[in-house]
Write a structure and sequence with these properties.
12 helices, mainly alpha
């Protein structure tokens, strides 16, 4: 008598397959993340490649259009770096050099008396805040160590910035053909129709998401740096660039950028920090409720609460990268669910029509 029947054996085999696949995905997660960002980068360049391909420059050659796109983007990036790169680097160098002394002023309580005297705080208030900071100095130490670890992790993965554009060339060149061949290998027409519609929705969603995030990040960078320059905020140029780049990370990025700006403003005892805080709050409302809907459109179609929950879950699973990938993953799941619902409804409708008696 067999220990397991056929149904139990199939169930166990399925569990084993899922465990093996999960283990494999976890082990090669870094490579998969590079591939995902390569796909995102390809989606970002796809509109420009198509425009060049069908112009006189591209001569209807996909390879030539990709080459000219990379040359144009590289030239534009070089011009931007030549224009503001040295000033940003100098600002960043000064901020890094002054950071130990600024943190020491916080730990010693000097920053409280300097900041409080400028804003007319009473002696008792300044003393209470000094005691509070002294009793919670471990929070500052933990924050500093986490920032240092994050910077070290980014530097360790600098190879990604080289691999992503290289791998994106292959996705730009052959990506659509791979997807079409994979769909064509399916046996049932209903499955092919379902995946074609899902692939079309994913194309629209990812292209809109990546392009919109880049555009929003660029707009925010210009606004931040301009305002900080007008307000004479110390290290305003590098802070504006960093806050603008953080806008590329949904939900968590803008909050981190605002916290970074206000923290540095407090450390240097900037006298107009309340105006900066007010500006950041107003800009957040303008960005989220005026600019984002116009730029992003209705392609992602995620409820704000769903986006926040997805970002929090992504942060728990994969940190900063998990936060960034959380919105596309959540939007992809929504697309699969909606298309599956439509496919099931269509099949039920066809079944009802077949069962309906023909009137004589």
């Amino acid at each position: 008598m067999p220990i397991f029947d056929s149904r139990t054996a199939r169930a166990l085999a399925t569990v084993v397959v899922f465990v093996v696949v999960g283990w494999f995905v976890y082990e090669v997660r870094s490579t998969l993340i590079v591939l995902l960002f390569s796909i995102f980068f390809a989606y970002l360049l796809e509109p420009l490649v198509l425009r060049i391909e069908h112009s006189r420059m591209g001569r209807n050659s996909r390879g030539l259009a990709i080459l000219e796109t990379y040359l144009l983007c590289g030239g534009a990036l070089a011009l931007v770096l030549l224009a503001i790169g040295p000033r940003v680097a100098d600002d960043a160098r000064k901020l890094i050099q002054s950071m130990p002394s600024l943190l020491d002023r916080v730990a010693s309580g000097k920053i409280v008396w300097q900041f409080g005297s400028r804003h007319g705080w009473s002696y008792e208030t300044q003393l209470r805040i000094e005691h509070f900071i002294a009793s919670h100095s471990y929070v500052l130490e933990n924050f500093t160590s986490r920032v240092g670890a994050g910077v070290a992790n980014v530097l360790k993965n600098l190879l990604w910035f080289v691999l992503v554009p290289i791998l994106a060339i292959f996705f730009l060149k052959e990506g659509r053909r791979f997807a079409q061949d994979a769909i064509a290998n399916l046996h049932h027409e209903s499955q092919r129709r379902f995946l074609r519609r899902v692939a079309q929705d994913l194309d629209e969603m990812l292209a809109s998401f990546i392009g919109a995030q880049l555009l929003l990040s660029g707009i925010a960078t210009v606004v931040y740096t301009s305002f900080f320059w007008l307000m004479h905020l110390p290290y305003g140029l590098v802070l504006g660039v960093m806050a603008g780049m953080l806008e590329f990370i949904p939900v968590v990025g803008p909050l981190t950028g605002a916290a970074l700006v206000l923290s540095v403003g407090f450390l240097v005892a900037y006298p107009h920090i309340l105006w900066v805080a007010l500006f950041l709050g107003i800009w957040r409302l303008v960005q989220d409720y005026l600019i984002v809907p116009r730029v992003m459109g209705n392609k992602v179609k995620l409820h704000p609460l769903a986006a926040i929950i997805a970002a929090l879950m992504g942060n728990e699973i994969g940190g900063v990268i998990g936060v960034y990938l959380s919105i596309p993953v959540a939007a992809t799941l929504r697309i699969l669910w909606v298309r599956w619902q439509h496919s099931r409804l269509r099949q039920e409708t066809l079944a009802e029509r077949k069962e309906r008696p023909i009137a004589v």
